[in-house]
Amino acid sequence: MAMIILYYISDCRSNPIRGLEFHVVLGESVPQPQSHEDKPWFHGGIDRGQAEDKLRRIPHDGAFLVRLVQHGDSRFGISFR
Fold first, then answer.
1. Are 69 and 77 in contact (CB under 8 A)?
2. Strand partners of residue 50
3. Which domains does the chain carry?
């Protein structure tokens, strides 16, 4: 199924989609919202040591937080207690 979608996306970028009243060539995809940034478990600006220190202060196991691997990086790290 994914291959079919990718085929049509790439085809529509080079060949226009035509309708009775429109003629469209697809461009770039719409960026995804960064909805994780306002969650209580997301701490983008801390490093691994700070994450571990923050989790040590929580009195129960199972706590976690998600952070960026490095500032400006798009990869995520997860720390657990």
1. yes
2. none
3. 1-29 (no CATH), 31-81 (3.30.505.10)
**Pairwise CA distance, residues 50 & 65, whole Å:** 11
Measured from the Cβ of residue 51, the count of other Cβ atoms closer than 10 Å reads 19
Length of the chain, in residues: 81
Query: Does position 8 have pLDDT exceeding 70, yes or no?
Result: no
pTM of the model: 0.56
The span from the CA of 29 to the CA of 12, in Å, is: 12
Please state, in angstroms and rounded to a whole number, the distance separating the CA atoms of residues 7 and 67. Answer: 34
DSSP the chain: -HHHHHHHHHHHHHS-EE-SS-EE---SPPPPP-GGGGSTTB-TT--HHHHHHHHHTSSSTT-EEEEESSTT-S-EEEEE-
